[in-house]
């Protein structure tokens, strides 16, 4: 890169190291950083540390996070970041590439400028139901979830049976309710039942009803959920746990639109839209002989897959502030900030219980803590007491032995479990940098 003559004159009058040190000291109050050509951080100003909550000692010599990456195409890019106070701030990134004497890129300088006021805490979760970030109670800004929302909207216009697949706590019932609310059946009943929560006999009675005298204690006729949901929607949660004998009866209802109550001798006609859900793969259950193949095809006319929270980490802060606002409204305590270390633990956690677990963590914090700042001490014990026992798979990896991709994935999974989702601690167990761990997690879908 050809030097500007005036700048060459400046360099001739000062020691280069002293000049650079003075310039960096001058801009220490601004969010400035410098990286080499491999995107490893060489300089991290005090203002940058204040903005992000990440001190220089934690980031210098490490690979730059993707949101700060320096490329000529990203100059002027607008970013939304969580600052050290837990606020969402809008920033404009300016970059300047630095070249060596041969004209090759040797690194770059970056500057973050505020392009608007920090968003108030209440503004983060206060998203109108008309936006795609709050879709009938499903809070998300993840691209993967936006695709799910579109499928929900399309499926709701039909009467097709929907099968929702997702982990526990991911929001399967919310999907069913959204389909109901968007459908022509919105003014009719919506009923839900967990097929794993009742014994076979009780479940049959709850679903299909019984007549008086059908069994001991049946002193009067009882309308089941199919009958009570007539004209509306019935949500069958954990449908994979349905006993085989009831699977045959459910298949009849779907095919014939009628059923016979327990102990009855006359069929009852019903018009019910079915939405089923399971955390198991019905195909795998069919292979095991535990689920009817014909019923599987009847249920999964429109399959919807809900990604777990660990695969849509951009939703974590959004959900945190949503649930904080919900509990702020109870006037027992009002949280308007999250301690930077607590926020880092929350963002790095694996969330095996998904959205339900995240909500429980906020409830815990409101119950045990006081004051306007959510602190680390107010998080459940699993956030503060990572296990330190090294698993055999982790030992193989840290001993630098050659592992297959499957073995390496197992080691990473075990490290994340032992560290309760903390990427920093898991990286220490594995002997990996945070950036390497992020990359491998993405590769193995962990």
From TrEMBL:
Biological processes, Gene Ontology terms: regulation of DNA-templated transcription
Domain PAS: 16-62
Domain of life: Bacteria
Record-linked InterPro entries: AAA+_ATPase, AAA_lid_NorR, Homeodomain-like_sf, HTH_Fis, P-loop_NTPase, PAS, PAS-like_dom_sf, Sigma_54_int
Molecular function GO terms recorded: ATP binding; sequence-specific DNA binding
Keywords: ATP-binding, DNA-binding, Nucleotide-binding, Transcription, Transcription regulation
Gene3D superfamilies tied to this protein: 1.10.8.60, Homeodomain-like, P-loop containing nucleotide triphosphate hydrolases
CDD domains associated with the record: AAA (cd00009)
Organism annotation: Methylovulum psychrotolerans
Domain named Sigma-54 factor interaction: residues: 138-367
The name this protein goes by in its record: Sigma-54-dependent Fis family transcriptional regulator
Pfam families xref list: AAA_lid_14 (PF25601), HTH_8 (PF02954), Sigma54_activat (PF00158)
SUPFAM superfamilies assigned: Homeodomain-like (SSF46689), P-loop containing nucleoside triphosphate hydrolases (SSF52540), PYP-like sensor domain (PAS domain) (SSF55785)
């Amino acid at each position: 890169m050809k030097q500007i003559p005036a700048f060459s004159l400046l360099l001739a009058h000062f020691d280069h190291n002293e000049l650079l040190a003075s310039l960096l000291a001058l801009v220490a109050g601004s969010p400035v950083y410098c990286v080499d050509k491999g995107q490893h951080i060489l300089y991290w100003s005090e203002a940058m540390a204040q903005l992000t909550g990440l001190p220089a000692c934690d980031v210098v010599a490490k690979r730059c996070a993707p949101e700060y990456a320096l490329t000529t195409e990203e100059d002027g890019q607008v970013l939304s970041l969580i600052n050290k106070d837990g606020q969402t701030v809008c920033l404009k990134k300016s970059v300047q590439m630095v070249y060596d004497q041969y004209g090759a890129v040797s690194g770059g300088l970056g500057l973050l400028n505020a392009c608007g006021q920090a968003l108030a805490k209440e503004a983060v979760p206060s998203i109108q139901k008309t936006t795609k970030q709050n879709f009938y109670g499903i809070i998300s800004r993840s691209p993967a979830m936006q695709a799910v929302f579109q499928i929900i909207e399309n499926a709701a216009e039909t009467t097709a049976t929907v099968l929702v697949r997702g982990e526990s706590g991911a929001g399967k019932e919310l999907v069913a309710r959204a389909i109901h609310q968007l459908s022509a059946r919105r003014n009719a009943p919506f009923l839900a039942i967990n097929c794993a929560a009742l014994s076979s006999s009780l479940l049959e009675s709850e679903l299909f009803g019984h007549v008086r005298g059908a069994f001991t204690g049946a002193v009067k006729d009882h309308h089941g959920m199919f009958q009570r949901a007539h004209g509306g929607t019935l949500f069958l949660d954990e449908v994979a746990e349905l006993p085989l004998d009831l699977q045959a009866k459910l298949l009849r209802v779907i095919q014939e639109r009628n059923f016979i109550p327990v102990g009855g001798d006359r069929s009852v006609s019903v018009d019910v839209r079915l939405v089923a859900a399971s955390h198991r793969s019905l195909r795998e259950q069919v292979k095991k002989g535990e689920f009817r193949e014909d019923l599987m095809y009847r249920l999964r006319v429109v399959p919807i897959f809900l990604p777990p929270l660990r695969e849509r980490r951009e939703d974590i802060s959004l959900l945190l502030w949503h649930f904080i606002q919900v509990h702020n409204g109870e006037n027992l305590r009002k949280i308007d900030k999250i301690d930077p270390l607590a926020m880092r633990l929350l963002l790095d956690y694996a969330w095996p219980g998904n959205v339900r677990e995240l909500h429980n963590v906020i409830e815990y914090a409101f119950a045990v803590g006081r004051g306007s700042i959510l602190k680390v001490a107010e998080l459940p014990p699993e956030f503060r007491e990572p296990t330190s026992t090294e698993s055999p798979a982790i030992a193989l990896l840290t001993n630098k032995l050659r592992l297959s991709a499957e073995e390496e994935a197992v080691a990473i999974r075990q490290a994340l479990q032992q560290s309760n989702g903390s990427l920093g601690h898991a990286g220490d167990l594995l002997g990996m940098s945070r950036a390497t761990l992020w990359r491998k997690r993405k590769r193995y879908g962990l």
